[in-house]
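Q: I'm writing up a methods section and want to include an example of the input and output format. Could you take the sequence below and give the corresponding predicted C-alpha cells, formatted cleanly so I can copy it straight into the document?
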Amino acid sequence: MNKVNAHAKPPAQDAYPRLIERLPVTLRPALNQQLSQWAMLFPFEQNRVVTFMDGVEALSPAAFQALTGPLFALEAKMDVRHWNFSEQADTIENASLLARSAYYADWRRETEKVFEGINAAARVSAPAQTGSTRLILLFLPASLPVDHETVWQQWDPRGQEIKISGDAGGICELALKGKPGLSGIATLLAGHGAAESSDLWLIDAAEKMNAALSSLPSPPAASSLSHTALKPFRDRFLAELNKAPKSIQITDEVVASLRRESWDGWNLWPAELVGQPRMRQFVIDLFLSGNGALIFSNSFVEWAACEALRRARPRVMVARFGMRSKPKPFTSIAVFENQQRISSLPDVDDPENSAVDALILARYVWLSASRYPEQDRTICLCVSEFSNTAYLIAPADKSPGWSTERSLTPEDVYKWLAAQIAA
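A: Here is the clean output for your methods example:
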C-alpha cells in the first residue's frame, strides 16, 4: 500500500477523476466525495483510496471490462441513468433509490465483486505488510452496577475472565498517565513510530480521560472525544438538525449544509477540538448518522469507537462508558428531542439500565473490530470497575497464560498490555 501524507494529495490524484469516470455510475459518489474532502480523511482512508485507484489503473482494458461489465449491464437494467442520482457524494436519496430497486440484492453482489477484483489487482504489486499488535481497552466505570455472575456470559468464548485485586480503575489511570518506570499508552506509541493522532483514540462518556491527559506535562498525540465536553455543540447541532423537514430531498440539502457549516462562529467546540478540523468533521458525520449518539452518552461512545475503527484503524482504542439519565415521560427520544429543553423535570441517573446498555455496547465495539483483518492482531480488554473483573480476548500467540483462579493487580495487567504494544 502506498503511504500518503495526511494533508497533501498524492502525486497521481490529478488522474483520479478520469479513473473514476471509467467505473460504473453507482461506484462514483463515494470516491468523488472522498476526493473532495481529502484533508478530512484519516491516513487509513487516504491509503485505501490510493490503493483502490492503483488497482483500477493496474487492470488491463480486457480485465477491467470483464470485471465491471456485469455491473454496467445491471445499472442499465436498473435505469440508473434516468435517476436523480448524485455522482459527487453519497446522499440519502442515492441510498433510497438503490434500496427501492428490484435489483438491489444483485447490485450489492456485483459491487462486492468489483471492489474485491480491483483491490486484488492492487495487492499483486503491493509489498507485504507486517502488522503491529493493536489494543482495544473498554471501561465500565464503578458507577455501573453490573451483575457479578453474568457480566461476561455473552462475550466471545475464546476469551477469559480476569479477577482484579485492588481498584480495577487503576488500569485506566496507568494506560493514560503511566507511572515512574512504566510508560502510558501514548508514550509507548510515540516510541514505536506511531506519532499520528489517529493511532490513539480516547472516547469518553464523561471527561475522566480528558482530565487525566490535561494533567500530563505535554499532551500526547491523540484523537480525543468526550460526550460531556461536546454538550454545548450537541445541543445546538440537535436544534439545527430538527429543523429539517421530513423529506428525503430536503434532508439531503440540510445534511449537506450542516456538513459545510464550520460552526466556528458559535464558539461551541471543546478545547481539545479547537484547531482540529478533521476531528470536528468526524463529530459532525457521527451526529448525522442518526443512531442516538447525539442523545445518549453510551451510544456516543459505542458508535464513535466503531466509526473510528472503520475509518482510522487505530493502534490503540480506549473507550470509557458512563451514566445516562432516565428517559423522561411525554418526550420523544425516538426523534431525538433535547430532553432537558422539552421537559422541566430534573435529570435522574439510571445506573442499572446504564450498566446494561454499556455492557451490550462494549461488546458491540469488539464485534465491530472483529469484522476487519486487523482483528487477528488485536487484543481486547473490557474492565468492569464495579465487579473488579475484566474480560480478555487475545490472539492465540499473545495469550498471557494467566490462571483463571489468580487475582492480578492493575499493574500486572497493564504491564502485560504495555509489553504487547511495545513488542
